[in-house]
Amino acid sequence: MPVLNRRDFNTIIPMNQTSCINKVLLVGHVYDDAKWLKVENQQYLFCKLVTQETISKKEGPHMEYHQLLVPGSIVSSEVEFAKGGVLYVEGKVQTTAFRDANGVKRYNTEILVSRYNTMNSVLQPVA
To answer: Residues 2, 59: contact at Cβ < 8 Å?
Structure first.
């Protein structure tokens, strides 16, 4: 079997808007209380969601922290985003670039939420 490099892959399978999927499904615990942010004249509720999985019995659970941006237009209550609450979210990955105080280009990856549901009665909060 031939070894393909990135250039060959793009030649074999052309990528265009109709063939790509950017979909995220998460179930996790709200890490901190949410706060409101204004981004480009639109209100968003910002919070961090923590998910965990057991990779091996020796190492214990692996925790992953996700930054969520929830459009204000779909938020029914801030209480649903209280610390320790359990959320199911659907959305897409969004990466933005910015320059830090030293002028170094940095990247921030967030989940832009399109739909969510509380699941507080299903899972126990993370201690």
So the answer is: no
What are the sequence ranges of the domains in the chain?
Answer: 21-118
pLDDT digits (tens, 9 = 90+) for 94-115: 998 999 999 999 999 999 999 9
Q: Nearest 5 degrees, angle CA 52-CA 94-CA 78? A: 65
CA neighbor of 28 nearest in space, from 90, 93, 108: 90
pTM of the prediction? 0.74
Q: Burial level of 119, CB count in 10 A (0-12/13-18/19+)?
A: middle
Q: How many CB atoms lie within 10 A of CB 50?
A: 15
Alpha-carbon distance of 56 to 42, in angstroms, equals 42
- Class in CATH terms, 21-118: mainly beta
